[in-house]
Amino acid sequence: MLCKLRFAGCCEVPRPWVTTVSEGVNRLYYIHGGEGGYIRGGKRIPFVPGYIYILPAFLNTETYTDPDNRLVHTYVNFELVPPIISSDVLALDPKSDAVTDSVFKTLELLASMATKSVLSKEDKVLLIDTVTYLISKAVSVSSSALLDDEVVNKALKIMISRMKDGLTVADIAAECFMSTDGFIRRFTRTVGMTPYAYYKKLKLRAAAAMRDEGATLEEAAERCGYSDASALLHAMKISPIPTF
Fold it and tell me: Counting Cβ atoms within 10 Å, is residue 233 exposed (0-12), middle (13-18) or buried (19+)?
């Protein structure tokens, strides 16, 4: 399992809040208190304080909070290969067993440190490990699964791990031993968007995250496979970065 973090922290949501989980990014929430929930099939389903919720990327799930009762939560945004395949949000009681409770407490501590921007590289690796364990646990106790498509999973891993190489869709298809057209059809059918669209959004999100961490435009461009800072800046202007 390859997990790539985007954001982590903890906060109190002070106002009416609606957001959509989409564009290949998963979310993990731990609910400390307050009122809020997620929307599926037009129905509002409230979060239960004390539970962990994992919102799979490709569900396009809306979340909300009550304007009169602030939602307090720990959150982690991440990309995942293989992706979670589920018809609903995953819920997990962190106190279901001693190991899960211990792992969750570590995640909560690290998310608090991330809020203050004091995570070391070692802390980030540990945070990835805690998220990965909780994902596996939540999947095992739910009616969900991890995507079992060797070709798409390999393509997603290539996109995430070799972003700086500036690969084209044809390059990725060749590395997956498929024709370009066949690869595009298979990827689109499985993920819900073309590999070009997915890869473009993936690189823009990664560049935005690097900029937030202090990288220069030139550094972000090089690490995300753009020819130069001007090319990255142009891409950002014509395709605004999604707000997560």
Answer: middle
